[in-house]
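Q: I have two molecules that I believe assemble together. Could you output structure tokens for the complex as a whole instead of separate predictions?
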Amino acid sequence: MSNHINLERRRQAIYGWLMLSPAALMLSIFAFYPSGATFFSSLFSKHTRRRPSEFIGIENYNDLFADPTFWLVVKNNLFYAAITIPVSIVIALSMALWANSKIPARGFVRTAYFTPTVLPMIAAANLWLFFYTPGLGVLDQIGSLFGLQSVNWLGQPETALWAIIFVTIWKEAGFFMIFYLAALQTIPEDYKEAADIEGTSRWTYTRRIVLPLLMPTTLFILVNAMINSVKLIDHLFILTKGGPSDASKLILYYIWEMAFAFFDAPHAAAMTILILLVLCIVAAIQFIYLDRRTHYQ
Amino acid sequence: MSTKPFVVLKDVAKRWNGQLGVENISLEIEEGSFVALLGPSGCGKSTSLRLLAGLEIPDEGKVFIDGADVTTSAASDRNLSMVFQSYALFPHLSVAENVIFGLKVRRVPKVERNEKMQRALKITGLEGLEGRKPGELSGGQRQRVALARAIVAGQRLCLMDEPLSNLDAKLRSSVRKDIKKLQRDLGITVVYVTHDQTEAMSMADKVVLMKDGRIQQIGSPNELYSNPENTFVAEFIGAPAMALMDSYLIDGIKNGNKIGIRAENITIVPEGKGRLSCSVTEAEFLGSETLIGLEHEGTTGLNVLQPGLSIVPSGQRIDITFDDQDLHIFNSAGDRINGQ
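A: Yes, here they are, computed for all two components at once.
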């Protein structure tokens, strides 16, 4: 009898592994192996014609920590994340709540909010380049109507990063709104009516019922927004190229520069490993901490 | 029980895009009574309840609760509680939090809140389940949480929208008794929507039978059963429902009228001595009696009850008779014309 159970259990195990193997294989080839290889190459010196590459341990990491540009880029990226993540989530949520209520032209509003997401980032960046251009740009044109002076949004260190941040939020909020809209539609109308009968204000209903029920979505969006704050750099290529004087440079852009403009692959690899490490830690914290406080239906 | 009506609906109508919702709803409900809105699906019973709750605003007519005109008042200003068909329990809140949600919103002090909650949980038999989430409860327990949430507020009027439709048959009959007892013990007024006539007939002091957005008849369960005002009521109430016959089958009935007769008023007689000679279509054994379905030209739903097991093969001819005093007579429009 126990033999049969063992056989069955083994059959289930083999079945499980077979189901897992395609994904495991793909992930190994395209994610796990490259990560390992990157880590490996970050421990070697740069290969030049005069000096061949040799093992130098954590030397590349030490170089980075001593590099003021690296720290500036880290600071830029933290600031970028600290603004884009909460602001785009709050805007997405407000837009979703609004687009989900009974308003005229609801379909139009939803489509309009979603449009930025459909545009490729490069196209959107070109669009915004036109908005930001001093003198000719839409922003300056509007400003001049009110007698404001022309501002070179992308050209000065004080505003360049803000300009980048603005485009990111504009792009992301509509995307996140779709997730919130989908989640809002799973909340039955009954809850609102039950709350209405108790005399619950709209704000209390949103805070005590809607937001908690949206928590799984918020967690998902939070992780996505965090990853995007590291990986979404397409518009930098069009708008500022990280300038002026590195004021709008983000880490991934710096890695790209290091690897393909300065041809310093080991340092780029070291930086990549650092990012991976930080992202893993943050994602783990988010899932472990917030999961406990999240109600899944 | 005071005689002054507690809840009044006066000529209320609600239409959606010109389509009929409910029309001409007039209803008076005494305080402390149990009123069932009964009817087939789509008859407007839920709409009527929602109009009463303030979840919909009527296009025409007036709604009074406890003497005050609440026609356009918000639901929260009407001092009522409601049990939803889906229960509408908040899935992320525990049983205790669900029950006191409304009290919290109304800023009832914590001590009083807990007292009321404990009382409501005790009445509904939910003690010990305070910390559970609705997802961890059985259907019957969830239903009781919904009840607890409705009674904790201490409102005098409680609306229930098909609260038993998600329960299995056995549980339904026990919860039915619980609800009725609860209503009597607390002395509250209950307006109860259902499509199940057994629920309506067994619980209600007053049944409001609706069809196509209009009230067909208002009365006690007995009045609806023994004095149906029209053929719809006759054919809806009772199991089996009233049988209808064309006028030509019986002498002395005006042409075009319909005659109604209940199964228990029909008796089987030896062949040749009956008023109608029918053929048997089916025999259904119900335990204490057997329901025999009969067929005759010009009749619908003709049945006769026989005590005990009495299976008659289908196709067999049976003669039946009945007393004239048991006949219900309806005119060609379907309205009752005798014995009113």
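A: One point stands out. The first helix of chain A runs from residue 2 to 41.
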